[in-house]
Amino acid sequence: MRLTVVAIALGLVALASGAYYPASQPVTGVKYADKDFLFKQKFFFEVLRNIHLPLQFEEYFPYTKSYITDESKYVNFQEVVEFFNYYKAGFLGKGELFSIYNQEYMKQTYLLFTFFYNSVDFDTFYKNVVWARENVNEGMFVHAITMAVFHHPQLKGFVLPAVYEIYPYYFFNTDLIHSVTFRKLYDQKFGFVSNGKYNVVYSNYTALYPVEYYGEDKLSYFTEDIGLNAYYYYFMMDYPYFVGTDKFNLYKDRRGELYMYMYQQLIARYYLERQVNFMGPIEEFDYDFPIKTGYWSKLSYYNGIPFFVRNDYYSVSKDFYYQVNLLKDYEMRIRQVIDKGYYYAQDGSKIDLRQPESVEYVGNMIFANPDSVDKDYFGFLEVVARNVYSGGAKFAKFFPSALMHFETSMRDPFFYQLYNRFLTFYYQFKSYLKPYTYEELYFKGVEIKSVVFDKLLTYFEYYDSDVSNVIPLKASGEKFFDFSVFARQKRINHKPFSYTMDVYSEFAGKGVVRVYMGPKFYDFKQLQYLKKYFVEVDQYLYDFVTGKNTIVRNSRDFYYSVRDRTTYTELYKKIMTAYNGGEKFVLDNSEAHCGFPDRLLLPKGLPSGYEMTFYFIVTPYYAPKVQQFSTYDYTYSCGVGSGSKYIDDLPFGYPFDRDIDFSYFYTKNMYFKDV
Q1: What domains lie within the chain, and their CATH numbers?
Q2: Beta bridge partners of residue 536, listed in sequence order
Q3: For a FRET experiment, which of 195, 394, 464, 619 has its CA 20 to 30 Å from that of 523?
């Protein structure tokens, strides 16, 4: 891998999900955590320490033996009783391999989540979490508590350690885990502050091993990036495929459309990285033929069992041909309904699939979440496909591959091939919608005159991730202040850059600026095909004045991107310092989990430069149905299920979400800039 790269390259969006909006508005005033908040925040960090070991904090010991059974302590006791009965019948044991894409384990995870969610107060929640921490499968516990913190109205704003620090095994190769463990065996000072700079172990990417899966190893710096994989994990925890209905209000966030757009943007971002590495289009596959692209993750579970390996030219076992036939049936049903243009729901109502807003139905239909109109008919396409091509189900013991976890899916090249196939339903639906009219594209009286960019530079740098949870530490909480082990790994980054856009306006008022980035094209009509590979980098509301408007925007202010997370040890120290009466703990969105890594804004460049294209469009302000930020506090919450995350009411990906009529598409309120 080239380690010194300076690229006049245009980068891509800080959002693999152009609709997954973190709150990045300026905050007036500063909020500080009180003692009660700090007690709860401290609790979350302590129960997630050394997740595979017994709790080390004596204050929790009294609650490890039993859960709360008092009916008055729950909001919906019927759901809790269902958990009690299911648990008594047998849950996945501690230390066993867990995957959220195993139907039985998913059911158990959901019941554990509702058990937490229905607690009537924090005291009940606290005691039940401690019990579950000691008695429930570790992977299941992490999923359930993360979902509870993200979705319970009373837990908004609490910060959990980064998932790659809770569970380093899913983010760092086995050689790194072994190096850390062995180092501790012969160096007792290893990990403590007194050992200084020597608490570092170097980590490699899979590509550095003598394994090639048809050139895909060139992209390991991107596909195995801990920030990228954490981003996808958090999106899937905010919008789990098995959670929905009015209870959680995920439909308010245009969930079906959001899902489709998130995957479209992820595939577009991956495509741009492929192009920079001269790898050509994304490989296609057919259910009736072997999968050309194998994958060896080099990951191992906590108990030492390696992730299942999919060999090159992988063929589905004959025992699972029936599942391949299921996939074909599901796809046929979805395509037929889209082509037909309507569907009768179970209540007899007719759904018109020629309306733009019906993308919501199509998205839910494909991903078979609880908000889908008929998931029994359209089937669990995503879940079945992952199980079929994971391959681990054919063994006596469940043996998951990287494809079977939110945390590791994006490491596998087949992930992109699979979802690129699923997106054909999205494009099929959009193909039946009429192109935007001139009136829908043009913003009368507004003209973008020019856009000027700084030089765009990308480079590789070393980054330290806290992997202290790999090492068992039997000590009091205070000693966690002094103990941290770091995995040092080269990763891609970019120099912050700005652009200056001059806009002339004949009116004073609000407008919305959208910024996309994509591959350079040499014939304007190539955009019809390439538009699906443009990634939305930024979106913001602007108050235009009559005459010239000069907008200067820095990449650090882009709407979708977030900076690196603070490490577990550092955050825990801040929490405990404030808890003990020291420096106050600020409540803000600096540790937000709901944004795309700023580092991955630009694809890797080349020493000679790599040309790409920015696209700008200014549109009138179409107010959303619910005013942005009106139903949640954006200073410390991501607003999942609030229905008020979005700036305006235009479709995600506008205007690239429909076919283009080139006879009038390029209006004065648009601007293409080669970079």
Answers
A1: 52-155 (1.20.1370.10), 255-432 (1.10.1280.10), 438-674 (2.60.40.1520)
A2: 516
A3: 619
* pLDDT category of residue 192 using cuts at 50, 70 and 90: low
Q: How confident is the model at residue 7 (pLDDT cuts 50, 70, 90)?
A: very low
Which contiguous run of DSSP H or E holds residue 279? none
Q: Which two tokens stand for residue 562?
A: 């977030």
Mean pLDDT to the nearest integer, 636-662:
93
Nearest to 301 by CA among 413, 392, 187: 392
Cα–Cα distance measured from residue 76 to residue 295, given in angstroms and rounded to the nearest whole number: 44
Residue 586: CB partners within 8 Å, gap ≥ 6? 30, 31, 32, 33
DSSP line for 206-237: GGGSS--STTGGGGHHHHT-HHHHHHHHHHHH
Give the integer Cα–Cα distance in Å for 598 and 581.
34
Which residues, 6 or more positions from 457, have their beta carbon under 8 angstroms from its beta carbon?
Answer: 6, 7, 8, 494, 495, 497, 605
* 3 state SS of 533: helix
DSSP strand E in 436-555: where?
446-453, 458-466, 486-494, 498-505, 509-519, 535-544, 547-554
Nearest residue to 537 via CA among 470, 613, 630: 613
> In this predicted model, what pLDDT tens digit does every residue of 146-174 receive, in sequence order?
999 999 999 988 999 999 999 999 999 99
Place of tokens 């107010």: 623
- pTM of the entire structure? 0.93
* pLDDT mean over 645-656: 96
Strand partners, 515: 538, 616
539 burial type by CB count under 10 A (0-12 exposed, 13-18 middle, 19+ buried): buried
CB-based contacts of 651, cutoff 8 Å, min separation 6: 257, 356, 359, 657
224-257 burial, b at 16+ Cβ within 10 Å, e below that, comes to: bbbbbbbbbbbbbbbbbbbbbeeebbbbbbbbbb
In DSSP notation, 537-552 reads: EEEEEEEE-SEEEEEE
Distance CA 305, CA 300 (A): 6
Burial 24-36 (b: 16+ CB within 10 A, else e): beeeeeebebeee
Chain-wide mean pLDDT for the chain?
88
Contact 268, 532 (CB under 8 A): yes
Predicted pLDDT of residue 439: 97
With a CB cutoff of 8 Å and minimum separation 6, the contacts of 478 are: 576
Residue with tokens 């692209």: 293
Q: How far apart are CA 160 and CA 32, in angstroms?
A: 17
Taking CA atoms, 102 is separated from 108, 200, 386, in Å, by 10, 36, 10
Tell me which amino acid residue 283 is.
E
Nearest to 524 by CA among 668, 670, 666: 666
Q: Within 13 Å and on the Cβ side, how many CA atoms surround 436?
A: 18
Dist CA 102 CA 457 (whole Å): 43
- Three-class SS of residue 350? strand
SS3 content of the chain, % helix, strand, coil (to 5): 40, 15, 45
